């Protein structure tokens, strides 16, 4: 009986909070409007997602302690950022969760990456997209109208290729 109650509690918890999750920890889904937020970048500038409407936006949720993130980020740098950074219709923002500025700067330098990275010290931005206990790395692709068009989780070569193709097609 205790097991049944525990199972029911775990099953119903997302509904009690008005959120449902997919099998990868997301609380948003493809077709949803991307939740708006403001984030302070490591260079001191602040970016608001809604100010990027009209652009294709890639959000990359990351942290220095994430080994998969460290593996994926050079591919993002090479295959996405270097290819599209000069395109005025594209924006990429890494969202580093739970870490102070000094750690994030050291992390970005160690990879190395040159794309913008912002601070999400309490994972509040992360929690707009996924459950707080969900893992990273994950990427969210937002089209020019502000709708989510792709969600990724972890690094999978095929999924990464699909994501780069999706970004390319949205920028044509």
What do you see in this structure?
One of its GO terms (biological process) is cytochrome complex assembly. InterPro entries: Redoxin (IPR013740), Thioredoxin-like_sf (IPR036249), Thioredoxin_domain (IPR013766), Thioredoxin_ResA/DsbE_sf (IPR050553). The chain has a single domain, classed as Glutaredoxin, CATH 3.40.30. The chain is built from five helices and seven strands. It has helices at about 1-15, 65-85, 100-110, 125-130, 155-170, and strands spanning about 40, 45-50, 55-60, 90-95, 115-120, 140, 150-155. A seven-stranded mixed β-sheet has the order 2-1-5-4-3-6-7, with helices on one face. The radius of gyration is 17 Å and the shape is globular.
Please give a handful of descriptors for the protein shown.
cytochrome c-type biogenesis, 35% helix, 172 residues, globular, 7-stranded mixed beta sheet, 7 strands, Thioredoxin_domain, Redoxin, Glutaredoxin, Redoxin domain protein, single chain, oxidoreductase activity, 5 helices, alpha/beta
